[in-house]
């Protein structure tokens, strides 16, 4: 879609299953942009939905509901339905003023339906180099940051951490996603983290602005705001992660004069494959729901467009009245929507020394475990101590992905000799503050041989020494 003459625009269907078409359509862009604040209030639930429908209907009529373009759109929908697929609508906007409109709200009055509720909508950024999918061995690695500089409305950083961690708890527990929070959301702190590992996703929660170009607020060392232009932020991220998520109040807003001034479009132009950005403020509940659906879909191998659609559906699950599913915007570099090829998890290496605590009946023990690994098979020893009491156990076990099973099969040394029980432990490997952790539950083994051990259980947590 591009400007044709004042007050009108040329819409072209450049590729579809139903053929090509074009039309010249009127669109009052200035009038629609003037309603942006009213529209934002409606999305957040403090203004009537009719505002969103009025704007959405005007956008739909201009883009998909006029002349031959409308007939091609209807035919393409029918073809997709016959194939059992969702239609993907790719917007290529050649005008900065058009980029500032909320196309995700397009409303088809004839079907009484919002397009984003039934189809996949992508904003295409024309760039010369197109990325190919990268092969990722699970877990998908997410670097998250939530700067809260002094002098700006404060973020409840601990709550932001807890909410995103909670939203991703299931895929994290299944070994599909690993999330690491930047303790120092400063330029130097982020640079250290970016250089220390391969990150597939950068997830930003915080303040954004646009003053001639997109800006994101990091922290200075003294906690004051460091407003970083999108171009410099893109330089910081190089080599670019494939996906950036911007949960920022202005993170998806394009400047009125330059198509690439908005943070999202600048990051795409700099080499990021896809940006999922919020074009309005988003409530905590909606942000959590979107993150859960979106990341679970990506970790499961879905395309980025389908992941955004699943995230929208997750927001819809909060309440039938919400309109916040309009808020996410997907910007894509090129036409490929599958930016990751998810492969099996890397073979887990747990060989070495692990130390920690065993709690539960009959009492806490300091634990020192030494493991040897051959493929998925484990052997080793475990020493338990509690004051003068000490025992050394013979271990066998196995590792599959992030799951580690350990069995004590014999007592090698014990003092006193008859006060000990053999146990089985089912542990999961995770990373906390960049330190590997094995944690899980244990139960007594062979209680028929050791009646005093029947029914005892507890928790075991070990860190790599």
UniProtKB/TrEMBL annotation:
| Residues covered by the CHAT domain | 55-316
**Pfam entry (one):** CHAT
* Domain of life, source organism: Bacteria
Q: Which InterPro entries match?
A: CHAT_dom
User: What's the name of the protein?
Assistant: CHAT domain-containing protein
* Source organism of the structure: Acrocarpospora corrugata
Source taxonomy: Bacteria, Bacillati, Actinomycetota, Actinomycetes, Streptosporangiales
């Amino acid at each position: 879609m591009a400007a044709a003459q004042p007050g009108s625009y040329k819409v072209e269907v450049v590729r579809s299953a139903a053929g090509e078409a074009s039309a010249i359509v009127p669109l009052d862009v200035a009038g629609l942009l003037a309603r942006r604040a009213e529209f934002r209030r409606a999305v957040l639930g403090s203004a009537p939905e009719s505002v969103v429908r009025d704007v959405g209907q005007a956008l739909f009529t201009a883009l998909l509901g006029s002349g031959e373009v409308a007939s091609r759109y209807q035919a393409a929908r029918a073809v997709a339905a016959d194939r059992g697929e969702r239609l993907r609508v790719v917007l290529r906007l050649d005008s900065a003023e058009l980029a500032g409109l909320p196309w995700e709200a397009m409303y088809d009055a004839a079907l009484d339906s919002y397009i984003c509720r039934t189809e996949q909508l992508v904003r295409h950024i024309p760039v010369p180099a197109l990325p190919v999918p990268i092969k990722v061995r699970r877990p998908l690695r997410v670097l998250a940051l939530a700067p809260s500089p002094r002098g700006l409305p404060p973020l409840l950083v601990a709550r932001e951490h807890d909410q995103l961690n909670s939203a991703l708890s299931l895929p994290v527990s299944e070994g599909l996603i690993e999330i690491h929070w930047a303790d120092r959301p400063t330029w130097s702190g982020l640079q250290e983290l970016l250089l220390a590992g391969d990150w597939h996703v950068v997830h930003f929660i915080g303040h954004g602005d646009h003053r001639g170009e997109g800006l994101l607020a990091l922290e200075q060392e003294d906690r004051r705001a460091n407003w970083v232009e999108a171009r410099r932020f893109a330089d910081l991220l190089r080599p670019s992660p494939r996906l950036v998520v911007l949960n920022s109040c202005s993170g998806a807003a394009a400047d009125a004069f330059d198509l690439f001034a908005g943070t999202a479009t600048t990051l795409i132009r700099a080499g990021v494959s896809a940006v999922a950005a919020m074009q309005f403020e988003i409530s905590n509940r909606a942000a959590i729901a979107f993150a859960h659906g979106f990341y679970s879909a990506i970790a499961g191998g879905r395309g980025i467009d389908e992941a955004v659609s699943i995230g929208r559906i997750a927001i819809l699950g909060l309440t039938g009245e919400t309109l916040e599913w309009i808020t996410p915007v997907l910007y894509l570099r090129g036409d490929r929507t599958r930016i990751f090829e998810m492969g099996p998890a890397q073979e887990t290496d747990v060989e070495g020394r692990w130390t920690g605590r065993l709690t539960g009946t009959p009492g806490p023990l300091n634990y020192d475990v030494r493991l040897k690994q051959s493929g998925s098979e484990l052997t080793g020893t475990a020493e338990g101590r509690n004051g003068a009491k000490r025992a050394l156990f013979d271990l066998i076990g196995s590792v599959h992905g992030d799951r580690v099973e350990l069995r004590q099969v014999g007592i090698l040394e014990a003092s006193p000799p008859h006060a000990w029980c053999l146990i089985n432990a089912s542990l999961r490997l995770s990373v906390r503050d960049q330190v590997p952790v094995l944690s899980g539950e244990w139960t007594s083994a062979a209680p028929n041989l050791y009646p005093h051990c029947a029914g005892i259980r507890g928790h075991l947590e070990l860190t790599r020494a």
